[in-house]
Amino acid sequence: MTEHKAGTRLDKLLAEAIPLLSRTRLKALIEDGRVVLGEAPAREPARRVKAGQVFTVTVPRSRPAVPKPQAIPLDVVYEDGDLIVIDKPAGMVVHPAPGNPDGTLVNALLDHCQGSLSGIGGVTRPGIVHRLDKGTSGLMVAAKNDVAHRGLAEQFAEHSLERAYYALLWGVPSPSRGEVTGNIGRHPVNRKKMAVVSRGGKRARTRYHLIESLGGAASLTECRLDTGRTHQIRVHMAFRGHPVVGDPLYGGGVRSRLKGAAADAVMTYLTRNNNQALHAYLIGFNHPRTGKRLKFETPISRGIKDLIVLFTRNRVK
Questions:
Q1: Tens digits of per-residue pLDDT, 150-204?
Q2: Cβ distance 280 to 92 under 8 Å?
Q3: How many helices (H) and strands (E) does the chain have?
Q4: Which fold has domain 3-57?
Q5: pLDDT-derived band of residue 260, with 50, 70 and 90 as boundaries?
Q6: Model's pTM, two decimal places?
Q7: Which residues of 73-97 are buried (b: 16+ CB within 10 A; e: fewer)?
């Protein structure tokens, strides 16, 4: 440890040195005795480090738990022997992961489908061909068998699926119709975020068109994916200066866009709900067994409707 870091808390120092691990995760490792100074465990996250000290961190290999069926209500839009289309609510995680071991869409599907889900996605992601972020609502398709999984996965890889979203954005995009391009890769500083990068990353293109301006402070916009990158709409629209309303990762610095009573009303709602105003309202694909074209739409989400009312009622300018 270099001299200028002397006096720093151990958990803070490690979080800066190992950005792939969160400070909470590192704190748990410290308390579990997996951070060692010399030969002795350093079990106090708040201890102040000294110049010249060398700490060794051991991260145990993760062992994914096999998810169990849970009787969680699902909004089923379509279902047959090969696949199921559901309207996922905002706030639901798609598959088990650290911090979300159960209560996920996978747990609900295992119960609803009585175990008839494709195993290609692995033990923690049976049937999952694609995903929506926790805070994003809308249509998803899951595979009940390996034939359906492979057929749907090929269409995702070829970008032949049709996917469209309602997005409530800060500000009003100009021109009112266009596209955003730019490779998307891991953020160079915050490893939990994605970003438009000048080198590396994966090609991405989002097409959009303005549906309605809400007094200038926000707008309802349709976004269509020509590619499917992690956080693509959220990253691309924030890159253009119009982050998704309520986005906890990419929507910072938006308080200045609001004035008066509107500011309090909208910010109170966003704090209470903590989900980005993004809804996957349309999905279209060829049935992996019959080849028939299927297309499904769902109405705009209740969360976005509520926000539109708040913006309109308070005449945000």
A1: 999 999 989 899 999 999 999 999 999 999 999 999 998 888 899 999 988 999 9
A2: no
A3: 7, 14
A4: 3.10.290
A5: low
A6: 0.77
A7: ebeebeeeebbbbbbbbbebbbbbe
Give the amino acid at 201. Answer: G
Question: Does pLDDT of 69 surpass 50?
Answer: yes
Choose which CATH entry (3.30.450.20, 3.30.530.20, 3.30.2350.10, 2.40.170.20) describes domain 161-317: 3.30.2350.10
Are 155 and 184 a contacting pair, CB within 8 Å?
no
Is residue 153 a contact partner of residue 129, using CB atoms and an 8 Å limit? Answer: yes
Instruction: Please give the positions annotated as active site.
Output: 133
Measure Cα distances from 301 to 83, 90, 137, 138 in Å: 23, 9, 7, 8
* Domain boundaries defined on the chain: 3-57, 62-158, 161-317
Query: What φ, ψ does residue 235 adopt, rounded to 5°?
Result: -70, -50
Tell me how far apart the alpha carbons of residues 311 and 303 are, in angstroms, rounded to a whole number. Answer: 13
Same fold, 3-57 and 62-158: no
Instruction: Average the pLDDT over each of 210-214, 230-234, 249-253 and give the range with the smallest value.
Output: 249-253
Strands ordered across the beta sheet of 55-57: 40-41, 35-37, 55-57
CATH architecture of 62-158: 2-Layer Sandwich (3.30)
Tokens for 310, please give them: 């708040």
